[in-house]
Give the backbone structure.
Amino acid sequence: MAPIAHARPTMAFGYLANNSNDDNFDYLETIFPNSFANSLKNIFDINAIKPHSLNEELKKYKQELKKYYQAYELPELVEKIDSDLFIYGNFTPLPNNQIKIVLHLYAEDSKRIFTFTNVGKMETEIFRLVDRITMILLNFMDKDNLFITKIIAPSARLAFFTNLEGDELNQFYFPFMQTGYGVSYFQGNELYNKLTVDDMQAFSNVATRENSYDIITDMRKVRFLYGTWSGNYHDERTRELRESFTANDLNYLKSKEAILETINKTYNGSIDYLIIAGFDTSRSRAWVRCIDLKEKDLVWMQTDIKGGSIKEIGENMIKRMNTKIEDPFKEQIEKNK
């Protein structure tokens, strides 16, 4: 997803649908998106379209703003409202006065949707929750598309999957081992790695239980043709394609969780985090996806990590893994005290 880099980008906010059966929470369906829009405008020069205004805009096309959207509907919607980014989601009240918020972000022409989940307290901490989620939005909209949910401290046991080979992999492993991380033998060090830069891009799409960064598929365009003209070979091939499509697209999350569970069992629970790192051909840039193998959840994602060498990229990754994200609202809160 490209950063929102040009002057005064437009961000459209849809509803946060009430996923409970309690209508008393319906007022939050617009309170939350309006609050996110206001928080972003306080620290970021944006043109914010709130749900009411967005609904009025859609009436020009004889449509109304919906509470729920299929992912494949988003490109057409964003084009109609002439927005750089569309944000919508849902919330679920939880026991002990807590609330779970799920947000979906779609950037124009990205063909990907970013989903993340956050849980916080109602009432006393509602504004802190809004600020925390706004901070996640700000970091993700930056050029690095940063998303990180926790510190991954030394002593954590890591498994890497990369397109590095031979001595490159040794250079990459070294700073992690030197810092105190455990490095698994998950990826064997071979002289040649057949994974290309383009091959690795397929692994940049991640779907996990709470947080995802996944490609948008339009199910309406999928066709498996057959008829009296098709023979046994064609029918068998069609069946294989249908099964592959079902497992790797329609049921991608379920298939991914099964694979992660297999990895966890194969290595007897000795791996804490699986880090997928794709390097460019010059080995001066890399992107990262990090999955908590115990929780089976995406906990760190970053698009552009730079370095003068593979070792330096590894060192920069370690810095990011151990750096708490700065709170852009801290200065504002101090002034209001």
Remarks:
- The mean pLDDT is 86.
- The chain has ten helices and 13 strands.
- The CA atoms of residues 131 and 329 lie 7 Å apart.
- The two ends are 37 Å apart (CA to CA).
